[in-house]
Amino acid sequence: MVCVGPSVRLNSLSEQFLDSDDPVEKVYKALERIEKTRGLNAFITVDKEGALRSAEELKRRIRTGGKKGRLAGLLVAVKDNISTRGLRTTCASRMLENYVPVYDATVVEKIKMEDGIVIGKTNMDEFAMGSSTETSFFGPTRNFFDHSRVSGGSSGGSAVSLATGAVELALGSDTGGSIRNPAAFNSVVGLKPTYGRVSRYGLIAYASSLDQIGPMARDTLSTALLLQVIAGSDPRDLTTSSREPSNYVEEATREARGLRIGIVKEGFMNIDEKISAKVYDAIGVLEKNGCSVEEVSFPFMKYALPAYYIIAMAECSSNLARFDGIRYGGRRAEGRWEERIVKIRTEGFGEEVKRRIFLGTFVLSAGYKEDFYMKACRVRRKIHDDFKLLFRDFDALAMPTMPVLPWRTGEIVSPLEMYMMDFETVAVNLAGLPAISIPAGFVNSLPVGLQLVGDHFEEATLLRLSYGYEAETGFTKWLRTPG
After folding, report:
1. Measured between alpha carbons, how far is 228 from 104 in angstroms, rounded to an integer?
2. pLDDT one-digit tens code per residue, 39-83
3. Is residue 374 part of a domain?
4. What CATH number corresponds to the domain at position 441?
5. CB-CB neighbours of 178 under 10 Å
6. Does 357 fall in a domain?
7. What is the pTM of this model?
């Protein structure tokens, strides 16, 4: 966890660890922590040898006075749909159970260049399709605060790896809330950047127009530091923006006084009153810090969920067509070519993935594309335009991250009921906006998240609000003493 004063610079964040900690010893302690919390099932693959090798190389360089990167000595967990060279990348699916990439994703390259130590790959919903990390072929990840409950998803393993203290930093991906949801359920910070702020090269695609890699951490400045490292344009991902990233760590420490926050009233409809009260209390802290607060209406938000699932499933059916057991994934199968593909995909994909492929293929089929997919795209544009109108008057919008508390594992069996859990988060992805989930406290000893949404490329504004809120509440302590 990074706790520093307002005059912080990037390098000092890692130096505070290395001044007192041997990087090799840190890796051994982390491995012990991962083993001790193995029952939470946060990791699919732990890279003991690779992490120790990186730590030993860093230690030698430090002893000889060599240059240290901005993440020197910090341990990083990587969601298992982000490619890592020589390290298994499964997407939590039987289809890719033994897939080992020959290259690193751009974000992983950047982390390694800055001396971050990747310790392993975290559990997730299969192909990032889920809100609870229950659809993983490797079993569900358990909630840090109540092991009988879900961790949220799809980046559940990344959130839990942070909550246990095994790592300081983690990468997740967010297609419809998959960073913010588990961050809220495990009382950590999770930031979904603007679409195009971070390269998706090496991210195994679910829905390409919605997916975004983002940082997760136990505190605001660690989140800002990781974003600083991974943000920027990439010639291998033509959807990335050429706009230069801000110095997010310095920006985060700027006073938030005077920022205007709109409370989206539709975001508080049909949710538990105790959750609403806790989120309003958190917004009250921001108001106490000098922010102006006003309730606003976003009536088109109610159309975001159906539009999102139509678009996401359509893109999913296209992206996952490559997994046929010939080009990618699967096992050997007998029979004719078509029979082999059917057998491989039937056995390789889980039920939720198959459901989304079927539905996505349907909404793109002749006679239905205009009624479903094209109409959803028009709704998406309307949601984007309505957000832009709101940001004429406000610097950020506030609402709960999740409409419910973490539910018990296996409690929700209806796919529709599970999809409804994304009501608070999917509009952000449709519009390509940045959003952050920060801990808002607890209801019945279970964590609640406050979601702040910013205008395009205004991640720095969200981090300013988060840092001021963290300074006032000290929410990093809640991981030790929930309640």
Report:
1. 19
2. 999 999 999 999 999 999 999 999 999 999 999 999 999 999 999
3. no
4. 3.90.1300.10
5. 35
6. no
7. 0.94
